[in-house]
Amino acid sequence: MAKQTGLGLGASLLFGKEQEERFFQCEIDKIVPNKHQPRANFNDAEIEELSRSIREKGVIQPLIVTNSTQPGIFELVAGERRLRASKLADLQTVPVIVLDIHDEQSLLELALIENVQRTDLNPIEEAEAYYKLIDKFGYTQEETAQRVGKNRSTITNLLRLLNLPQFVKTDIIDGTLSEGHGRALLRLADDPLKIKELRDLIVNKNLSVRQTEQLARTAASVTAASKRKQATIKEDEIPASYCSTITNQLTNRLHSRINIVQNGSRGKIEIEYYSLDDLERLVNLIVND
Predict the structure, then answer these.
(1) Contact, 117 vs 149, CB < 8 A?
(2) Measured between alpha carbons, how far apart are the two ends of the chain, in Å?
(3) With contact defined as beta carbons under 8 Å apart, do 13 and 117 qualify?
(4) Quick check: 63 and 40 in contact, CB under 8 A?
(5) Own/partner long-range contacts of 154-158 (Cβ < 8 Å, ≥24 apart)
(6) Which residue is catalytic, options 80, 109, 125, 128?
(7) CA distance 289 to 277
(8) pLDDT, tens digit, for every residue of 211-229?
(9) Residue 199's closest CA among 171, 224, 173?
C-alpha cells in the first residue's frame, strides 16, 4: 500500500504523484511562516485547545514545508495552526514533509490550494483565497473549482461575498453573521445604508437566515419601486438646459432671483423679493403685463 503522507489534492494537482517528498522531524525554530497564508484570523481558544491535544498525542498530521532562500530554514506551506499550537505546547521539533518547490508562483498556488481545502477557514478568507487564484493565475471559476475539489457554484457564491461592505465581511469573519446572512444581504449590495439598517436588526433581534432573506427581498422590492418612480419623474421633467434658459429670462425680466422647482411634469416658480416695496414692484410687473 502507498504511504499516506497527509498531502491534500493541491500538491498532486500542481506537481503530480512523482513529486519527491522528504519526511523528518524538523526543529521548530527553523520553520518560518508562510507569507502567502490566506488565513488572517486565528482563534486563540482553538489554538490553546489544539496545543493541549498535541501535548497529549503529538502532531499527528505532518506540516508541509519547502526550502527557503536561507540554508537550513524551511518556509511553511500548510499547517500554521499546528505550528502555532506546537510552539504553545513547547515542542522542540515537529514532523514535516518537504516539497521541492522552485518558484514563487508554485509556492503561492500550492499554499492557497492546500489552505482552502481545509474546513477551518472562515467564508471571507476562503473567498479571498479563491479570488487570489483567479486574479494571480488567470483561472476561471470552473478551473478554480477543479483545483480545490469544490463545486463551481460554491466558488461563485463565496466570491460574491466580497461585494459586501467591509463591516458585514467583518461580522462574517468574527461569526456575528453567517455566510447565509451575507448572501441574503447581497440583494441590497447597492445600498450600504439599507444593509447597515438590516444588519443591526439581524443582530439585535437574532434573526435567522430565512427571516433575513424575507426582509432583504422586501427591502430590495421597495428600493426597486422607488428607483422606478424616480426614473419616471425624471423622464417627465423639462430638460435642465431649457429650465436654465427660462430661469435666465425671468431673472432678466423681473430683476429678482428665480428658482424653478420640478416634480415630474409639475412644479413651481419661486420669486424672491427683498422688501415690501420690491414685492409691490414685482406684483405691478406681473399684473400689468
Answers:
(1) yes
(2) 106
(3) no
(4) no
(5) 155/130, 157/183, 158/123, 158/126, 158/127, 158/130
(6) 80
(7) 18
(8) 999 999 888 877 655 665 5
(9) 171
Whether residue 233 has pLDDT greater than 70 = no
Domain limits, the chain: 9-121, 164-235, 237-288
**Cβ–Cβ under 8 Å, residues 231 and 224:** no
| pLDDT top residue among 94 and 264 | 94
The structure's pTM equals: 0.58
Please indicate whether residue 213 is annotated as part of the active site: no
Cβ atoms of 34 and 141 closer than 8 Å: no
Dig out the grid coordinates for 90 from the structure. 513547547
The type of residue at 276 is L
Cα–Cα distance for residue pair 234/262, rounded to 1 Å: 9
CATH 3.40.50.720 fits 9-121, yes or no: no
